[in-house]
Amino acid sequence: MLRKNINTLILNQNLKINYPVYFSEGIFDLNNKTNNYLTQICKGRKVMVVIDNNVNRIYGKGIKRFFDYSKIEYSLCELNASEDCKNIEKIESLCSAAKQFGMQRDSVFIAIGGGVTMDIVGFTAFVYRKKIPYIKIPTTLVGAVDAGVGIKVGVNFNGSKNFLGGYYPPLAVFNDQSFLKTLTSKEIKCGLFEILKMAIIRDRRLFELIKNHFKEFFEKEFNANTHEINYLAAFLMMEELEKNLFEANLQRLVDFGHTFSPFLETASDYAIPHGEAVGIDMLISSFISLKRELIKKIEFDDIFKLIKAVGFSKKYNLPNAKKLHDSLNEIRKHRAGDLNLVLPVKFCSAVFTNKCSYMEVESARKFLLNTNLFSAAN
Known about the structure:
Blueprint: E1 3-4, E2 8-13, E3 17-24, H1 35-42, E4 46-52, H2 53-69, E5 73-79, H3 88-101, E6 108-113, H4 115-127, E7 134-138, H5 141-145, E8 152-157, E9 160-167, E10 172-176, H6 185-202, H7 204-218, H8 224-242, H9 261-267, H10 274-291, H11 297-310, E11 317-318, H12 321-326, H13 328-334, E12 341-346, E13 349-353, H14 358-370, E14 375-376
Parallel strand pairs: 3-10, 4-5, 4-6, 6-7, 7-10, 11-14
Antiparallel strand pairs: 1-2, 2-3, 8-9, 12-13
């Protein structure tokens, strides 16, 4: 059951998994009452704080001050959070640091950073002493509405993204909108595309909120509108995850925008960040849906115009159609032999298909190149 009040989302599946997601401002502000929850969780435990190095540079002093003031026994470990360091060697390194610090079964890891940081720390907590608790504090927009509220943990392996991992719910999640004030334009775009994903497949009202207020994210005017967008996107994401938390059913609406995007990321050597790859994928998938007459032209135009308005950070190179189409074979391996490509039917609805022809991919790619938003890869 999913329950909502002013500050909290509770995820509960058959009364077996139950963790809170707190929405707040200034979680490490000593005058913020919400931080009492964090203090209560950490009191009497050894706490290893794993923090993205960029986050530490900006917010590190305030975070250390909070833990010092709260008289929590902690160790702070800085992480260069990039896809290159998202590997098993980094897990071993963190486990070594945790062992040296004396982390026990009742100790707790805290991940402060984006999706990469949370994936790495979650996986470390998953394997260290056969699972110890961990807390997520996402500092990116993508993390707040997507990676931060889910339970998947993992690392890359042998060139495959998130190949090693598992499902491990956090002890709690603290979504703090104040971290968004120092995000780059690229990071904002990535988050907005993940939010737009939820709008297209689940909620027309969220789509309209994004259309009317997305500029406020770029202008760093965080207010009731941006808070509502973040909250609604996270809530919808959790509703989708709740009924299929361990992915027993591989037909997942939240995979909209996540069929072509893994290859777009890896083929560009991660020059195309995850969120923007999702934006490109949504355009490809929506165009295929249009050509199959699953959505109307006016609906496709609405999607295209908003994605274009949010914009991409640069004119990315698109792989050729054969490589894009061939990449679907890897997705089928990840989805037990099925493609499960998510195609929007209309706003708030979608279908799954296991068929996607080379001609459809080529047609979608040609459309994207003709928009002049992208260029062809060599």
